[in-house]
């Protein structure tokens, strides 16, 4: 059984200040993300025991735990490199062209993505994803980590809007946190993810 592991942050905990504070980054990465890794691995271990025993009576609950925790781990693993101390501004090159083609303009995309992230009910994510069947970019919401997503779409840019991602600095002002996020977006990382997704789709 392959186990999930917590990836290291690609920068110091304080590197994204003043937009995202050091204390939040420490708690978010070291505690919350680690908990999703642990939960996903625990679910995998339970499934392994089920295969050995042949008893699948609890499989629905275990698969629910796996979907929740593995999705949390995978989205966070995109979230950290999606940000950079040198981030912000606007995308360039083929990513900028694709955003303009699919959304009309970068400003229209930014407004739509911000609205999607701000409109998540409770806890979840705003997501820019590549949908390979239509060769287009979509903005999506994920409630919790796994609900409301488009199956098969590959996340390129994700914004965690669980309260643990912003409450220490922004309290209940999710909108201010979303606006601050644009100052740290790592567009080269997003562009590389789009290129890889399109290449995998044969585009």
Instruction: Report the average pLDDT across residues.
Output: 97
Unreliable runs, pLDDT <50, ≥5 residues? none
How helical, in percent, are the residues?
Answer: 40-55%
Whole-number total of structural domains? 2
Radius of gyration: 18 Å
- Rough shape? globular
Second rung of CATH, namely the architecture of the largest domain: 3-Layer(bab) Sandwich
Structural class of the secondary structure composition?
mainly alpha
CATH fold descriptor of the largest domain = minor pseudopilin epsh fold
- Biggest sheet, open or closed, and with what strands and sense? 3 strands, antiparallel
Number of strands: 3
Describe how the helices and strands are arranged.
Layout: H1 22-53, H2 59-79, H3 93-103, H4 106-118, E1 124-131, E2 136-143, E3 154-160, H5 167-170, H6 174-181, H7 187-200
Helix pairs in contact: 1-2
Walk me through this protein's architecture.
This protein has 203 residues and is mostly helical. It has two domains: 22-79, Orthogonal Bundle (Helix Hairpins), CATH 1.10.287; 93-200, Iron/manganese superoxide dismutase, C-terminal domain (minor pseudopilin epsh fold, 3-Layer(bab) Sandwich), CATH 3.55.40.20. It contains seven helices and three strands; from the N terminus they run H-H-H-H-E-E-E-H-H-H. The chain has helices at residues 22-53, 59-79, 93-103, 106-118, 167-170, 174-181, 187-200, and strands at residues 124-131, 136-143, 154-160. A three-stranded antiparallel sheet has the order 2-1-3. Helix 1 (22-53) packs antiparallel against helix 2 (59-79). The longest helix is centred in the first third of the chain and has 32 residues, at 22-53. 30% of the residues are buried. The mean pLDDT is 97.
């Amino acid at each position: 059984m392959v186990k999930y592991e917590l990836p290291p942050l690609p920068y110091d905990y304080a590197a994204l200040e003043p937009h995202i504070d050091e204390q939040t980054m420490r708690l978010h990465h070291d505690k919350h993300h680690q908990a999703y890794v642990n939960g996903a691995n625990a679910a995998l271990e339970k499934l392994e025991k089920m295969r050995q025993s042949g008893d699948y009576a609890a499989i629905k609950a275990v698969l629910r735990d796996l979907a929740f925790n593995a999705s949390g781990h995978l989205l966070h693993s995109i979230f950290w490199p999606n940000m950079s101390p040198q981030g912000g501004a606007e995308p360039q090159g083929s990513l900028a062209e694709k955003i303009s083609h699919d959304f009309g303009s970068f400003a229209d995309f930014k407004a739509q993505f911000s609205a999607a992230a701000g409109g998540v009910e409770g806890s979840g994510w705003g997501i820019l994803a590549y949908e390979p069947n239509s060769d287009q970019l979509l903005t999506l919401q994920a409630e919790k980590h796994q609900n409301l997503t488009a199956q098969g779409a590959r996340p390129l840019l994700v914004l965690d809007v669980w309260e643990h991602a912003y409450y220490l600095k922004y309290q209940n002002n999710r909108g201010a946190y979303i606006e601050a996020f644009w100052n740290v977006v790592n567009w080269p990382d997003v562009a590389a993810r789009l290129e890889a997704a399109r290449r995998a789709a044969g585009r």
